[in-house]
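Email to the structure team, subject: AGAP012946-PA-like protein model.

Hi all, the expression group asked for a predicted structure before they design truncation constructs. Nothing fancy, just the tokens so they can compare against earlier work. One-line instruction: predict AGAP012946-PA-like protein, return tokens.
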Amino acid sequence: MANFRIMHCWDIRKMIQRAITSLIVAEHLLATNMCSPLLIVLSFTSHLLFVLGNTTHRSNQKSYNDIALVKLAEKVEFTKFIRPACLWVTEHRNTPWYIATGFGQYIPYEGQTSKLLRKVKLQEFPTGDCNKNDKKLKEGVRDSQLCVGDTVEGRDTVEGRDTCKGDSGGPLQMINTPKTCVFHVVGITSRGPEGCGVGKTKAIYTKVSYYIDWIEENVWGSDAQKLDTYSMTFKTPK
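Reply from the structure team: attached below.
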């Protein structure tokens, strides 16, 4: 069983020594007496180009290929609260509106993350909008990324809706067929400016459809158990 994570959440230098060993599913409220299933993580696979960008002099690559796969030791049992989400596989998207979820900061600059799982409705914008806001993207927004935010042209807002620190790795989803309530994962929360939802800022999300071949090769391909050209796998310590 595989799951998504965003790669920059993990310190590359400490991955082998302090690898993530478990994963919680269906958690809505973080508490000390959590009853949600705790699943054992066998390994996680990162995109090799991201690893190289964070461990070599290629500092201009640190903002790209921000994606990883998590392999679980057992299958996830689906319930009415635990449901699978499909991956969006094409460049064409039926709607510019998405839903992002996470336990990240909900009051900018205060540093407090949420114990309650929160969601926000966001809109996709031209990549040029994010190029203006994020000067740290040395090569600008690539085809492998999405520019998503809340501010609509002509709307005068001081603080808008946005993802924030602590939301990284969370899904950016859309409902393609409302009657079936099947969610499609379009993106993964990756990076954004310092001020969350302030002014006309927008955030960067890893585009899932761009990495479909890489995902399928590592999850279902004949070489799924091996290291390929664009992957690096770390096993969790026993």
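Residues 4-82+213-227 form a domain with the Thrombin, subunit H fold (CATH 2.40.10). Residues 48-55 form the longest helix (8 residues). Ping us if the truncation boundaries need rechecking.
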